[in-house]
Amino acid sequence: MHDTVLYMYKNASIKLIFTNYFDFEIQKKQIIKLIGIYTEDKKIKTKSGIKVGDERINAITKLDSCGYSLHVLPDPRKGKDYSLILLYDEKGEISRDVYFYFKNNILYAIAVEYGGPID
What we know:
The relative contact order is 0.18. The radius of gyration is 16 Å and the shape is globular. It is mainly β. The chain has one domain (2-114). Helix content is 8%, strand content 55%.
C-alpha cells in the first residue's frame, strides 16, 4: 500500500511516497516508510543541473560527463513515446535509484526511488 503527501519546498512541489505495513514479527507495530520522492516541478534541478523540460540528449551528456553509470531505457509501462534514464545505486540490501522520465525526449519528471519505479 502506498500513501502520498504533496509537499512544498521553496515554492516547488514535491510528492513524497510512503509505504505502510504492519511488522508482525520484529517490532509488532505499524511501520510507515519513505520509499520515494517525485517531482514534475521545473524549479527542482539535480546537482549536475538537470531539470524538468531538458532534452534527453542534454541529460545524458551531463550525467555522462559527471562519470555516472546510467541506463537509457524505453518505458513500456507508458507507451512508445516514453523513455527513462536510470542511475542505479545499490548499498547493501537497499537499492536507491534515480529515475529521469521522458516523453518525446523531453524530461517531465525526476524521482528518487527505493526498490524500483513507483511512477
